[in-house]
């Protein structure tokens, strides 16, 4: 991750202690993102195995419909997890809410370890999606709140790259390791996450929001590399913390006057921003990447590829990582608009190709 961050336009010229703790916290938080990626990548090599005559389940091979449910129920868990952990992050803090995300993820892989029939996998995938919903809510929130302005954009944008890397890892380990051995790797990563993450303090913003100013200052000093209270922070950090205090002091005043109302959405600029944001989110959700990754091995098998289905799926995962790296490096150089238009155009072209292929297969060609 650091190697890629080096090419970002706002990467610091030298790694100092005031930045080290921010990168360390970002690395720890994104361990949960790697696990969610592995959970997504698990399906492509595992579903064909579960449907085969050599299925590792004692109940025997699963049906095509059961395989479809194994893939789909993860999204249901993600929907529930997003709502639950979004609420939890505001009431119990970013740190401990993110810490608890690991619990359903560990339970998910433990269920795979002891799976006897497809019902175990249904619950496992629901819990994996539930934890994944928490990852997408809490990791960006935690990282952006502990990072200083100069590297906030870089660290905050890591999650998608990390998840895509996790997908690649999941495709590789689940494609070539025994069905009951592969879960040990994400469980080990999660245990490391639980050990490392517990030593990090809560974010300064959350503590200020809860009016715990003394703890907020201790947390802020930690993430800026000035853990000892006797050491004076530079002026830029003193100003940064003072500005944070002003923001949360202001927000606590006249709360009734500052509640969100329909009038806040009445201006033209706000409506345009909402439409653009909604359109981008819809495009991202309906681009088909999740489905293609889940069925990558099946697609290449049915297409009669000269590659083995698992190798072909790993290649697809690798292309995703390369694409994420390219976007990550170019986003501040080429601009968001050009990259969004280019990726949308390319997605449309390749979806057309995929649609033609599916149509020809359906017609028996």
UniProtKB/TrEMBL annotation:
UniProt KW Nucleotidyltransferase keyword: no
Protein name: Putative sugar transporter
Classification via InterPro entries: MFS_dom, MFS_sugar_transport-like, MFS_trans_sf, MFS_Trehalose_Transporter, Sugar_transporter_CS
Domain of life, per lineage: Eukaryota
GO molecular function: transmembrane transporter activity
Membrane disposition: Multi-pass membrane protein
PROSITE patterns: MFS (PS50850), SUGAR_TRANSPORT_2 (PS00217)
Localization of this protein: Cell membrane
CC annotations in GO: plasma membrane
Keywords per UniProt: Cell membrane, Membrane, Sugar transport, Transmembrane, Transmembrane helix, Transport
Pfam families cross-referenced by the UniProt entry: Sugar_tr
Entry keyword Membrane: yes
Source organism of the structure: Lutzomyia longipalpis
Residues of the Major facilitator superfamily (MFS) profile domain: 25-365
Segments traversing the membrane: 21-43, 69-89, 96-116, 122-143, 155-173, 179-200, 272-297, 309-331, 338-360
